[in-house]
Structures are given as structure tokens and as C-alpha cells.
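Same chain as my last thread, 172 residues:
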Amino acid sequence: MTHSYGTKADMGPEVTAAANFVSRLLRTRGFLSEKQLQVFRDCLQQALSEHYQQHWFPDRPQKGSGYRCIRINHEMDPLIGRAAGRIGLSSGQLFSLLPRELTLWVDPYEVSYRIGEDGSICVLYEAEPPAPASTPSALVMSPFDQTMNCKNRFMMGGRTSPPKNYLMTVSS
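reply #2:
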């Protein structure tokens, strides 16, 4: 059985969820037109698909998680920056429109995000992986995979974020 890992079809829903989320963050300020948001979203989807092409492993979703992690933390993620450049946004404008600290994990079958270093991890998109063709042991991750994915590295780094299935609401 051959697999076509890394194709846009494999990562379509995940990449779409990620691009739509960042576009919605930009939309909240009301600064950009719908046309600009559409161009940004399309450019970001294409950039993510190309960037993840050789780093998409549906049979081992945690593999490559760090590579696929989109991060804004004092520096703008280059993929978001390039897509914003296509609609004429400067990095200063982009920083004023997006959260100061944002982490977005785009993994096979799940897209999640965290705003702020100690914020809750929220799931944007989740799908059930297809049943394995081989034995159930194919789904067992090695200890390396369990500790080295991007989300777990943040948790191990002294963060006190609750688990992703714990949603916290904050009222102002």
C-alpha cells in the first residue's frame, strides 16, 4: 500500500482551519476589506500547504509538529508575514492587528491555538484519524514523539496552561 503524504488534499481541512482563524483575527479590527482578507487567506493557505509538503505525516501526527508550529512572540511568523505583505500590510500594522503572543499548531487531524504564554489551548479543528490498516500498535507513540511535539514542549517548559480539553472563559 502506498501513501501520498504531504499532498494538499491530505492537509486541506487543517490548513483551511488555520488560515481562516488568522483571517478572523485580522477581521476583528475592521481595518481590512473582505477582498484583502480573502487574498490574505488564500496566500496563507498556499504558503502553509507548500511549507508543510514534506512535513505532513498522517500516520504519525505528532511527527513534525514543531516544524508546523506557527508562532508570534516578539517576532512575526514568516509565513503570516509574507501573506500579509501580499495585501500591503507592514509588519507594524500586522503586529497591531494580531495578538502579541500566538501559537498555532497545525497537525494532521487537529488544529489548536493558544493566545498568550499561559493561555488555554483551544481546539479549532479536530477529526478522527482513519482506522489503521495494520495492528493497533501502529498508533502507539514512542516516548520521544510524546515529549517532543510542539505543544508538549511548551507544557514541559514550566508553563501552567491547562490541558487543551479544559476551556477557560474570562470575562472583562
